[in-house]
């Protein structure tokens, strides 16, 4: 009953249309949960309707009227790689990333004011940090589930916490699977344009919402394309960055296909193939992160010594007051 009531409240909230639209995000979340193996966090299957119905929720936190929420949330939905090619490696801290952007802005604001105007957190994005934050909160929630199960108690509350974090993670990973969320050309081509790509901002919505809705995308279309679980080992932040790079590499393909007929033909096999491939990639990455979080939750929290807040920690950064992850 509590899940039903919460879903009803969310459905009454005003919707904001961004990224993949309602259909794409809901399909990615549902397909990811359907693809969880029996060794994974199968409890999420009980919450699949709530999660998929709420897949667009993070977009509703970006309204102009909610200024505090908007300024924090807006960057979480993009990763405009062209804007920070100067920054290698990518910092393992949201705040170190933001500080690096500002330092570069100060360096170029007089010599290259046009580039400087977009060298800030809003026009670069913070998507991988938002995804990792939700991922690690899932690990914490899942530890609480295991603890409740071990003592024979009720795990429904931590399960609901996990379902909410799955909504957040699913949205950011879903955004990341859409090529236009990984480029400064997110809403029309910028800068030199020798190939004559559209500069119309509506390309974003015409691709991810109008075309996807028109083709009638469903979870059944992409579940067979997800494949076996991966990302079982290795650094998850690096895996998220690689996932975003793979998606961003398809950005120009979106523009090439748009030149054909502006995405007006929902029977276009090439556009449909791109939608299938990208949404399946998003669902696979989400499934993998959910399963990896569940596996990580089986171990107690790692002891970090010295603490990330300890000035004696060799990685302590006085500019952020902490050491990076």
TrEMBL record:
UniProtKB keywords: Signal
InterPro entries: PLipase_C/P1_nuclease_dom_sf
Region (Disordered): 301-325
Molecular-function GO terms, alphabetical: hydrolase activity, acting on ester bonds
Extent of the signal sequence: 1-19
Domain of life: Bacteria
Protein name, per record: Nuclease
Organism of derivation: Sphingomonas kyeonggiensis
């Amino acid at each position: 009953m509590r899940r039903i009531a919460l879903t009803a409240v969310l459905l009454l909230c005003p919707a904001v249309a961004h990224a993949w639209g309602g259909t794409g995000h809901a399909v990615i979340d549902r397909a990811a949960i359907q693809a969880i193996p029996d060794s994974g966090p199968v409890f999420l299957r009980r919450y699949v309707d709530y999660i998929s119905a709420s897949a667009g929720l993070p977009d509703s936190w970006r309204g102009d009227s909610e200024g505090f929420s908007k300024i924090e949330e807006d960057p979480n939905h993009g990763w405009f790689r062209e804007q920070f090619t100067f920054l290698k490696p990518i910092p393992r801290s949201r705040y170190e990333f933001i500080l690096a952007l500002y330092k570069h802005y100060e360096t170029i604001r007089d010599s290259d004011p046009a580039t400087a105007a977009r060298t800030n957190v809003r026009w670069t994005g913070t998507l991988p940090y938002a995804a990792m934050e939700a991922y690690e909160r899932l690990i914490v929630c899942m530890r609480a589930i295991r603890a409740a199960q071990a003592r024979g108690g009720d795990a429904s509350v931590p399960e609901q916490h996990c379902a909410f974090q799955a909504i957040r993670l699913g949205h950011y990973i879903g955004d990341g699977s859409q090529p236009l969320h990984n480029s400064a050309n997110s809403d029309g081509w910028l800068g030199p344009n020798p190939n004559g790509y559209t500069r119309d901002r509506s390309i974003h919505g015409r691709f991810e919402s109008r075309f996807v809705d028109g083709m009638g995308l469903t979870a059944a279309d992409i579940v067979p394309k997800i494949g076996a679980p991966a990302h079982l080992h290795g650094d998850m932040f690096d895996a998220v960055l690689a996932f975003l790079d793979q998606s961003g590499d398809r950005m120009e393909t979106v523009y090439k296909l748009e030149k054909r007929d502006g995405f007006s033909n929902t029977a276009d096999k090439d556009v449909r193939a791109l939608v299938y491939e990208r949404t399946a990639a998003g669902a696979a990455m989400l499934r993998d992160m959910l399963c990896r979080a569940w596996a990580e939750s089986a171990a107690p929290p790692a002891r970090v010594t010295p603490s990330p807040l300890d000035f004696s920690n060799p990685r302590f950064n006085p500019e952020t007051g902490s050491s990076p992850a």
